[in-house]
Structures are given as C-alpha cells and as structure tokens.
Amino acid sequence: VCKVAVLISGSGSNLQALLDASAQAGAPFSVCSVISNKPEAYGLTRAAEAGVTSSIIDHREFPNREDFDQALIAEIDSCQPDLVVLAGFMRILTPEFVRHYSGRLLNIHPSLLPKYQGLHTHQRALDAGDSEHGATVHFVTEELDGGPPIVQAVVPIKKGDTADSLAKRVQVQEHVIYPMAVTWFAEKRLHMLDDRTQLDGELLPRNGTR
Ligand code: GAR
Questions:
Q1: Region 34-62 average pLDDT
Q2: Which among 32, 40, 110, 183 counts the fewest CB atoms within 10 Å?
Q3: Is pTM, for the whole model, over 0.90?
C-alpha cells in the first residue's frame, strides 16, 4: 500500500477523513506519520486514537524557514512515504521542500482555485457576493496555492451564511474529495506531468476542474 505522511496545524478533520478511509478493507493507502507544527493541535489526538505515530516540529524553535523545513523533511523521510499530504498545515513551505516532494505533495485549499488564494477564503467569497464556493485538492508547486488542480467540490452559498456556516458546508465536501484524490494517487491513476495534473491518462485543465 501507498504510505502517506500527513502534515497538520489544527483540528485535523481532514486527517480524520483520511484515517477513516485508510481503515476501510482494501484501502490502497495507509497513514505512516502525522506531523504537526503546533503542540496543541487536536489532530495529534486523532492520530493517537488511530494508533498512528505522530510528532511535533514546532516552527517557533527554529531560527528560519529553511531550518524548520529541513527538520520537517528529516522527520517525514524517516517513514519513507510515497505521498505527503498537507491537511490544514498553515505554514508556507520553502522551494527546497516543495522540490524535494515534487509530484508527491498534495494540499487542500478552501476555495474554488484560482479564486481566493491565501487566507480568509470563506469571508472573501461572502464579501464578493458569490453564489457558490468550495474546495480544491491540488498538487503543490512553488507557486503558493497555484499548483495544478486535481479535484474541486462546489457548494452553494445560502442567504444568511456566515464564514463559519459556509466553512462547515465546505468541510463536509473536503472530507469527501481529499480521500478520493489520495486514493487515486495510491492507485497510480494520478500524476503530475510538466506542472499539469494527469488523471487516468488525461491531462486536466490548468484552471480548475470539477
Ligand atoms: C481546512 O478547511 C482546509 O481546507 C484549510 O484548513 C482547514 C483545516 O481543517 N486549509 C487551508 O486554509 C490551507 N491554506 P482541519 O484541520 O479540520 O482539516
């Protein structure tokens, strides 16, 4: 099976979705390591409950991004994963880190990329008066939130929505599409080729896919 390392910073609900999917009979992947940059992240408890090894690499203990990322790489590579998955990991990674895992590094972002890269995506979608919003799983490249998309989930924006109510609706879908994308990768159906996503032998569009 495909070995997956998961990086988190917080609640870890996407980690939970991956742990649940990996526990299904015949699952093509298993989570070999969970790494958090925050000691208090609830996702660490989820890892412990699933019997998965976890570790904390606190970015505040490093003088700069390069040293932090080198420590991350050392910890990740100690389990020799086939895939590295960012699941609510809220640190920007150095080009060296991204290159080290090129083609085997995934992220989930809470917007319909290329819309709303960066933070506060739910509030920005509300402020713009959008009628729909969602989440995107993408390969990570050196361009922040700009790597080739793999799968998107769309949700309606409803009257009276707040950033919180919208985030909840989006997260339900995140928990569907992230295990799906990781399963495709584990089944060797998903590749990054020349900064494009290839799924089942077909190149996907660069600017969003549904
Ligand atoms: C998720 O909604 C994810 O899309 C978002 O953080 C949340 C983490 O939740 N990621 C980003 O904003 C990345 N820039 P979780 O810890 O419960 O999985």
A1: 98
A2: 40
A3: yes
Instruction: Name which residue sits closest to atom 16 of ligand 1, judged by CA.
Output: 12
Under DSSP, is residue 27 helix (H, G, I), strand (E, B) or coil?
A: coil
Calculate how far, in angstroms, residue 109's C-alpha sits from the geometric centre of ligand 1.
7
Q: What is the pLDDT of residues 152-164, one digit of tens each?
A: 999 999 999 999 9
Which residue is it, tokens 């526990």?
23
Which pLDDT value is given to residue 1? 95
* Closest ligand 1 atom to Cα of 171: 2
109 classed as catalytic: yes
Side-chain half-sphere exposure of 5, counting CA atoms within 13 A: 22
Out of 93, 171, 172, 182, give the residue to mutate to test ligand 1, the one with the largest number of ligand atoms within 8 Å of its CB: 171
Chain-wide mean pLDDT for the chain?
Answer: 97
- Other beta carbons within 10 Å of 161: 18
CA pair distance 21, 28, nearest whole angstrom: 9
- Section 86-114 average pLDDT: 98
Sheet containing strand 29-36, edge to edge, reads 54-56, 29-36, 2-8, 83-86, 105-109, 132-139, 149-156
| Distance (Å, whole) CA 76 – CA 110 | 24
Residue 101, strand partner residues: none
